[in-house]
Design brief:
386 residues; alpha/beta; 4-stranded mixed β-sheet; 14 strands; 43% helix; globular; binds pyridoxal-5'-phosphate
Length: 386
């Protein structure tokens, strides 16, 4: 016991000394633009609740109804006895909305990425992955035992070189976030789809931060680029714009059948609680039916970015409601976040290893539930804090 404790404490002290130790903040009550932390009301610019649906009463009502009809737990994995009507309804809704042959829901987006990539790529395959892809993609590749080739962020020339030098018969999969979670920029999906076609590779796009936010109808970056029908695998989450919980893939029927048989994070885990599936489905319906939320969200994000740029802050290549302020060193990021918190504003400091060394930042996210006054208050507080 003592040896373990000493070892762990040394590691934690080391993180602390480098300003990299992570702490949990105790939030009371519901998620939203304002949250209660230690008895104070804090203006929240740290969530991924882009459309403000996490505490929408319509999602809570859908969860309640499913709870009464189907119970609290699914009871088993989907392949054993847990394939419930809420899951089926959610999958049909997703396929119809995205315009794909089929959809398959996983318990989380993390599990979807790990399951899909490890099922599709094997020792004989190569996965080409943007250097800034989400950790769940990296973990999926590691688990697949395929060779991982990381290309520089958005680097289409480098990706093409890598594809060129790969033997023709090799199984190739290109994987990318559509919206990069810590940078807020959009992957060049049109160029990726083009390269994939020319070099015979499959493409998988992670729409965790694109779904519900981008595209004329909110279907994501694939719609934004007009690439429907040209991307083999569209993965996404129900935990961000859709306001609840879960991961999904949308694609052809064969892909769904294959993953049901091969994706270990689908097969060997209990199905998502039906109330989460029902609330997520309600979130997807709201994405589909209330485009004004998305329009307002994107306007607000533009306002914030403009306000920050006018103050001289570096918002990197952000084009979405994820707006980083690059400060580079971890200590400054923590101090800036702390100064804002004193003023009642929550803006999370993001440090390595979540982002590359020397690129620590504040990660701001606006939501459709924020007001213009909220954004003005943030900009003024940042001016003072900086
Ligand atoms: C790009 C990306 N992919 C996947 C995930 C995992 O999704 P989930 O939170 O549903 O597990 C996240 C965020 O958590 C993400 O940012």
């Amino acid at each position: 016991m003592r040896m373990l404790d000493n070892f762990l404490q040394t590691e934690l002290n080391d993180l602390q000394s480098r300003h990299l130790r992570r702490l949990l903040r105790n939030v009371d009550g519901a998620q939203g633009p304002r949250v209660r932390i230690e008895g104070r009301e804090i203006l929240n610019f740290s969530s991924n609740d882009y459309l403000g649906l996490a505490s929408d009463p319509r999602l809570a009502q859908a969860a309640k109804e499913a709870l009464e009809k189907e119970g609290a737990g699914a009871g088993a994995s989907r392949l054993i006895s847990g394939h419930l009507s809420s899951h089926r309804k959610l999958e049909q809704l997703l396929a119809d909305f995205k315009g794909t042959q089929s959809a398959l829901v996983f318990s989380t987006g993390y599990m979807a990425n790990v399951g899909i990539i490890s099922a599709l790529a094997g020792r004989d395959g190569i996965v080409f992955s943007d250097r800034l892809n989400h950790a769940s993609i990296v973990d999926g590749i590691v688990l697949s035992r395929a060779e991982m080739k990381r290309y520089p962020h958005g680097g289409m020339k480098a990706l093409e070189e890598m594809l060129k030098e790969t033997p023709a018969g090799k199984k190739k999969l290109i994987v990318t976030d559509s919206v990069f979670s810590m940078d807020g920029d959009i992957a060049p999906l049109d160029a990726i789809a083009d390269l994939a076609q020319r070099y015979g590779a499959m493409v998988m796009v992670d729409e965790a931060h694109g779904f519900g936010v981008l595209g004329k109808n909110g279907k994501g970056a694939v719609e934004h680029f007009g690439l429907e029908g040209k991307i083999d695998i569209q993965m996404g989450t129900l935990s961000k714009a859709a306001g609840c919980f879960g991961g999904y893939i949308c694609g052809c029927e064969t892909l769904r059948e294959y993953l049901i048989n091969k994706a270990r994070s689908f097969i060997y885990t209990t199905a998502m609680p039906p109330m989460a599936a029902a609330a997520s489905a309600r979130g997807v319906e709201i994405i589909r039916d209330e485009p004004a939320r998305r329009t307002y969200l994107l306007e607000l994000a533009n306002d914030l970015r403009r306000g920050l740029n006018d103050l001289g802050f570096d918002t990197m290549n952000s084009q979405t409601p994820i707006i980083p302020i690059l400060v580079k060193d971890a200590k400054t990021a923590v101090e800036l976040s702390g100064a804002l918190f004193e003023e009642g504003i929550w803006a999370q400091a993001i440090r390595p290893p979540t982002v590359p060394q020397n690129t620590a930042r504040l990660r701001l996210t606006v939501t459709a539930a924020h007001t213009r006054e909220d954004v003005e208050r943030l900009v003024k507080a940042l001016r003072r804090a900086a």
